[in-house]
Structures are given as C-alpha cells and as structure tokens.
Amino acid sequence: MLYMSNYSLPTVPSSLKVKLRLSTTEQLKASKTRQIIESKKLNTVCQEAACPNLAHCWSEGTATFMILGKQCTRRCGFCNIKTGRPSPLDPQEPENLAQAVFEMKLRHIVITSVDRDDLKDCGSTHFAQVIKRVREKNPLTRIEVLIPDFKARIENLERIWQAGPEIINHNIETVPSLYRSICPQSNYKNSLHVLELSKQAKFITKSGLILGLGESFEECQELISDLADSGVSILTIGQYLRPSSKHSPLKAYIPLNQFAALKEYAIDRGIGYVESGPLVRSSYHAKESFENYYNQIKLANK
User: Fold this and answer.
1) Are 63 and 57 within 8 A, CB to CB?
2) Helices (H), the chain
C-alpha cells in the first residue's frame, strides 16, 4: 500500500512557490473588488480561509462569498475559519450580496457559508434567500453554491434546490478514516448522501478533496469511486497547507505525478471534469471548470 504520508517534508516544493505579478490594471481591479466587498459588509472565504489564490482571483474580479456569518459551529482541523458563537443573521445580506454581484458584473458566482448547527434549519432558509435575491437582480449570472451538509436533512436541501442554483458543490474533504480526527462533527456518509440526493434532484454536482493529511493513495481511489457512484460531475483535488500550528499537522507534500494519477483515475471512473494540483481549491477557476465540463458534455452528445 502506497501511503502518501510516507513522502518526506524537506522543503516546500517548487509547485507551491508561485510568484504573482499583477499588472497595474490587475492591481486596480483587485483593489476595486476589495472595496465593493468591504462597502457591502460581506465576507469572503478567500479572506477567512486564507486562500493562496486570493490576489489572483481578486485581480480577475472574482470572489467566493461566504454567508451566514464569520464564525463556524464546527471545528475542522484543516480549516482556518474561526469557530465560536455565531452572530445573528444579517437580514441585509441577500440584498448586499446581490448588489455586489451586480456592481462586479459577475457571470459566475460562488456562494458558500459557515456551518450553522445552532439554527433549527442550519441556515438553509437564509442561504436560499440569498440565492433567490442574487438571481432576481442578476438573471444572467450562473450561481454555484458550496454548501455545508445541513445535517443531510432533506427539508434543508430542498430549500436550496428550490432556489435554483446551477451547480451544487459539497466538499468531501478527506478520506473516511480521517474524519474522526480531521472533521469530527461531520459525517462521510452524510456528505455522500447530500451529493447523491442533489444529483437525483437533477443538479450538476461537484466536490473537493484535500491531500497531505495522512491518507493513502488507495483510500483516495476508494473515495473517488464513492463520489463517482454518487453522480459527481466535477472534482477538485488540492494540497493541504497548514494554516497554523493549532491546525492538523501536514503529513506530506504530494508529488505532481500523484495528482495526475488521481485525476486520471477519477476520469476513468466517470467524473466529467477534474482539476488536480497543489494550488487547486474548490472554487478556484470555478467558472472555467464548469465551462470545460459543459463543453465536454456538448462534444460527447454530438
């Protein structure tokens, strides 16, 4: 059995050393993106999760909006979003986010959220209201949602489905054997159920996996097979980067050939489009991932 954790950690690999050079125009666009986000009092997962692609995405005028507050009710070992007592929901958030999308002229938007296990509906009603208001104000904008598991309750998921996003993303994150230590308040089978039910409801489904937490290559293959069996159409595979010493230890930097091998395996198992590499994140190149998947479907149906 090939354990990814057997790879040593001598130095940060060159694949993670990316020098970002922004032109004056790109810098101005990134600054405008920040201004719009801050003026509307919105949160982004780009900031809260310390995404390494923030500058690039903001220079492209894109961002992944995070709703339902800044404090999460779950404590996942890989995640940089703060855990704590959540604030009350902001009734202006649906309108503010819809207006930000309008001002940024976005044609593909990603909306995600913290977990709100403190709420009876896990925040699904508010999440659906945000989707609906964005749709009303921006009818040409494609909406991708990166949802929590909502405790896999059908009534919570139905609220999201009825709001009508185009893509439903729910990250599986890691292999079953690591759930207890990495995301103890979540459940692997619940996550698969969310994806399977969303696919049955006729949505394009997407999921994400992070590597370097101690998983084996064979476990990753089994996970990918589970996702394929659940009908997942788009998959992202990226490298875990430890946000701080308080987070789960980084066990390995995964070689590029392993990312390539898992991508090949996922495609062979029937997943339509796969982004796989050290800097890949679930909402990075989300617009391009969807368009590439859609173009593949069109070619296949010719």
Assistant:
1) yes
2) 24-39, 45-48, 54-59, 93-104, 124-137, 154-163, 179-182, 188-200, 217-229, 256-268, 286-300
17 contact partners, CB below 8 Å, separation of at least 6:
none
The whole-model pTM stands at 0.87
d(CA 70, CA 35): 18
AA identity, residue 11 = T
Hey, which residues does 206 pair with through a beta bridge?
169, 234
Residues 6+ apart with CB under 8 A from 12: 253
CA–CA dist 93, 69 (Å, integer): 10
Residue 296, domain member (yes or no): yes
Question: Does residue 164 belong to any structural domain of this protein?
Answer: yes
Domain count of the fold of the chain: 1
pLDDT at 267: 97
Q: What is the pLDDT of residue 107?
A: 85
Q: Token pair of 139, please?
A: 């009818």
Question: Which H helix or E strand runs over 145?
Answer: strand 142-146
CATH number of the domain at 208, please.
3.20.20.70
